[in-house]
Amino acid sequence: MNDEYLRHRNGVAMLTKRLIQCKNPSASENEIFSWFMAGFLHDVGKEIIDRHHPGLLEKATPFTDEEWQIIRSHTVIGYEKLKESGIKEISDAASAALEHHERWDGTGYMGKKALDISLPGRVVAVADVYDALCHDRVYRKAWSKEAALDYVRQNSSILFDPAWVEVLITIEKNGG
Ligand SMILES: [Fe+2]
Ligand SMILES: [Fe+2]
After folding, report:
1. How confident is the prediction for the chain on average, in pLDDT?
2. Which string of b and e fits 11-47 if b means at least 16 CB within 10 Å?
3. Contact, 130 vs 116, CB < 8 A?
4. Any bridge partners for residue 137, and if so which?
5. Ligand in closest contact with the CA of 8
6. Are 96 and 38 within 8 A, CB to CB?
7. pLDDT in tens, 105-120
8. Contact, 46 vs 5, CB < 8 A?
9. What's the CA gap between 43 and 99, in Å, rounded?
10. Relative to the alpha carbon of 15, which ligand is closest?
């Protein structure tokens, strides 16, 4: 996997942890650890895809329908891998892996809507998009923090759970 993937999983893990600590300052070490892992492992299915389809995730040209299907399947593949492990501490990570591409308005991968989306799915969706926008990708340059935060704010109750958008705004207001 490329450096940006490795950076991104750390970035999402740290941000997910901060969102939880901001919302619930008395969260236990175990809870914080399991939320950190939810961020860290949300795209783990991509690592499995990368093994079977080397180079696919780094491809700069547009994806064919078939390639797009494979990439989209990283949610289910990651979920199954994490579930299979049977490790209790990563059950939030399994939910995050499965549901981080769900959208509040029901237009995401599986069409789950609002509070039907698991809590890990809703929290990691915010951290995932915000972290990705703030950094360079092969297909676009990084956005400024202000622009990325504006995007998330404008998509509150559309793509994202409004409660967690508010937490992100609070964190960024307090210096990021
Ligand atoms: Fe993803
Ligand atoms: Fe991601």
Report:
1. 95
2. bbbebbbbbbbeeeeebeeebbebbbbbbbbbbbbbb
3. no
4. 140
5. 2
6. yes
7. 999 999 999 999 999 9
8. yes
9. 11
10. 2
What is the model's pLDDT at position 176? Answer: 60
Task: Report the separation in Å between the CA atom of 43 and the middle of ligand 2, taken as the mean of its atom positions.
Answer: 5
The CATH number of whichever domain residue 14 belongs to comes to 1.10.3210.10
User: In the chain, which residue ranges form alpha helices assigned H by DSSP?
Assistant: 3-23, 29-41, 44-52, 65-72, 74-85, 91-99, 119-133, 145-154, 162-173
What residues make up the domain containing 115?
3-173
Q: Rounded to the nearest whole angstrom, what is the distance from the C-alpha of residue 22 to the centroid of ligand 1?
A: 24
Confidence of residue 58 (pLDDT cuts 50, 70, 90): confident
Q: What is the DSSP letter of 61?
A: S
The structural domain count of the chain equals 1
- Compute, in angstroms, the gap from residue 53 CA to the centroid of ligand 1: 16
Name the token pair of 131: 């972290």
